[in-house]
Amino acid sequence: MARMRAGDVVLLTTAASVQFLRPIFVRVIRELPERHTYDGWVWIEGYELNAAGDAVARRELYVMRGGVRCQAQPIASTKATRRRPVRRGPVRVG
Question: Fewer beta carbons within 10 Å, N or C terminal of the chain?
C-alpha cells in the first residue's frame, strides 16, 4: 500500500501486525514519519471505528505497510446498533 492519507479507512488484521487478532477498521489521521521504524513498518495515528462507522477511540498504531488493506467504508455488522431517541419527561426541581 502506498502512503496513507488523512481520511483513508483501512482494515487492520494479523497481516498488519499480530496485535490485531480481532480485526479493526481505522480512519487514518496521518502517518508519523518522524518515528523511525524497521523497513516496511510505519506508525499511524487514527480513529478506531465501530460497526456503524463511528469513531470510538483515538489510537497510535505500529503496522506493517504491506498488511494494511484500504477499504471504502467499514462493513456494517448485522448487529449494528442504531441510536434511539431518548424520551425525556418533565423534571421536578426542588
Answer: C
* pTM score: 0.71
Of the pLDDT bands very low, low, confident and very high (cuts 50, 70, 90), residue 79 is low
Rounded to whole angstroms, the Cα distance separating 32 from 85 reads 39
Q: What is the mean pLDDT of residues 36-51?
A: 92
- Please write down the HEC assignment for all residues of the chain: CCCCCCCCEEEECCCCCCCCCCCEEEEEEEECCCCCCCCCEEEEEEEEECCCCCEEEEEEEEEEHHHCEEECCCCCCCCCCCCCCCCCCCCCCC
Residues with Cβ < 8 Å from 12, sequence gap 6 or more? 20, 23, 24, 25, 26, 61, 63, 67, 68, 69
> Which residue's entry shows cell 508519523?
32
